[in-house]
Write a sequence for this structure.
């Protein structure tokens, strides 16, 4: 079971609906389990290694390396280790500090996320050394997944790790999109933007990844070993767009503004041999949720797998859709279920409390809860599939049409918690936070709402 605190979540509020939503989470996450999907894709038969539609003759293949970093990387590496065993010459992956699992043949390093740290930098140096040993007949099985940008920092010469940390903090707080953030990070890195692929060449690279970005753009998912469409001017534009140019370290401004064409990220593969496989994405997770709810008797619909926007505003809109369903049996007739996948964001204002704790999914949950009438039978679950919503230990939250009244009884002001971006404290007191720990799944966020 992914959810660890089920009993706490189903002993109050719309109990029946809450139980249905928790079962739906299990079905959805199970469908996009990277370990199982890797096992389905990678096979060894009669000295032949098959990866999707690729075939490798193990008698002619040199050394096999497994490298990677990210929130969904460990289950992929675990599956590869079990499939290939002693055929793996060497391996190293970087995971979040809260990931406790280890592997037998592949080394596991733990590092900071979302702010990079020294441990990540040291581990990145190890991966670069391993990549530098590549020969033409070698095979690199690469598992860079969401979170790898922070977990594997390798700043360009002249930019310190602390400089990159400061830039990361500024970008995460300004409301920039993941594409904009990555345009900056890639151009401050010695490995991102396909630069690691250049180091690995002439060996063959097979990327096995999980998408945590809307539209599945490879350059945002597994960017160290794929081509990059962004340029130095995009990085500069992003920093100026969000009024950060004057706030980033001087070393960053110097590097971005004075970089030459030969310092650009990888724009075409040329002779570099790269094969890419996305084994899981949010469309698969959303469809699994919809199908499960349909089998449970709900009229079910996926509203979008491209959900974006400010969490509070999206939450208000979703609450209005649920009210329309209860009042007028539209867009679906009751019992009804709506599934949304994507990634909302929280933009921190200048007066946000320093000790405020929350995350996009938790803010989405509270915003929906404050707009749901108590008399309606509605519940919603909002969670980050990797098990950590924002900088918190919570995966998200489960709320319903009784949540607002329960908060009032306990003296909890949900409106203030939203305004101060301090929703985690309120949801924790309501026993509505979801605890999963690291799931090994990372396909962005899901919002599932049901009404009867």
């Amino acid at each position: 079971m992914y959810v660890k605190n089920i009993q706490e979540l189903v002993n109050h509020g719309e109990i029946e609906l809450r139980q249905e939503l928790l079962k739906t989470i299990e079905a959805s996450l199970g469908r996009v389990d990277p370990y199982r999907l890797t096992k389905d894709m990678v096979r060894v038969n009669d000295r032949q290694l098959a990866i999707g539609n690729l075939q490798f003759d193990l008698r002619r293949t040199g050394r096999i390396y497994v490298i990677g970093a990210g929130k969904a990387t460990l289950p992929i590496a675990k599956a590869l280790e079990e499939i290939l065993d002693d055929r793996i010459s060497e391996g190293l992956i970087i995971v979040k500090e809260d990931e406790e699992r280890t592997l037998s043949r592949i080394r596991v390093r733990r590092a900071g996320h979302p702010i990079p740290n020294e441990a990540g930098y040291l581990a990145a140096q190890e991966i670069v050394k391993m990549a530098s040993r590549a020969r033409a007949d070698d095979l690199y099985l690469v598992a860079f997944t969401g979170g790898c940008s922070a977990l594997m920092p390798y700043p360009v010469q002249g930019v310190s790790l602390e400089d990159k940390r400061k830039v990361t903090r500024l970008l995460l707080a300004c409301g920039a999109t993941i594409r904009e953030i990555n345009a900056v990070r890639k151009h401050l890195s010695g490995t991102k933007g396909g630069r690691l692929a250049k180091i690995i060449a002439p060996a063959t690279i097979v990327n096995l990844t999980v998408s945590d970005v809307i539209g599945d753009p490879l350059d945002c998912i597994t960017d160290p070993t794929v081509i990059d469409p962004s340029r130095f001017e995009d990085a500069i534009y992003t920093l100026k767009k969000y009024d950060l140019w004057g706030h980033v370290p001087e070393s960053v401004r110097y590097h971005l503004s004075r970089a030459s064409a030969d310092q650009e990220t990888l724009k075409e593969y040329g002779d570099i041999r790269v094969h890419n496989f996305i084994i899981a994405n949010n469309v698969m997770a959303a469809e699994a949720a919809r199908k499960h709810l349909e089998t449970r008797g709900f009229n079910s619909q996926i509203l979008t797998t491209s959900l974006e926007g400010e969490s509070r505003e999206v939450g208000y809109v979703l609450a209005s859709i649920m009210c329309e369903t209860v009042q007028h049996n539209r867009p679906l007739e009751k019992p009804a279920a709506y599934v949304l996948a994507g990634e909302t964001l929280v933009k921190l204002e200048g007066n946000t409390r320093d000790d405020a704790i929350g995350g996009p999914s938790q803010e989405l949950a509270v915003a929906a809860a404050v707009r749901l009438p108590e008399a309606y039978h509605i519940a919603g679950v909002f969670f980050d599939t990797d098990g950590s919503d924002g900088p918190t230990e919570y995966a998200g939250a489960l709320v319903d049409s009784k949540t607002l009244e329960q908060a009032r009884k306990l003296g909890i002001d949900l409106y203030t918690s939203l305004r101060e971006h301090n929703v985690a404290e309120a949801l924790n007191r309501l026993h509505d936070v979801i605890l999963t720990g690291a799931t090994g799944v990372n396909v962005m966020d899901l919002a599932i709402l049901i009404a009867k």
The mean pLDDT is 96. The first strand starts at residue 42 and ends at 45. The CA atoms of residues 305 and 341 lie 4 Å apart. The radius of gyration is 23 Å.
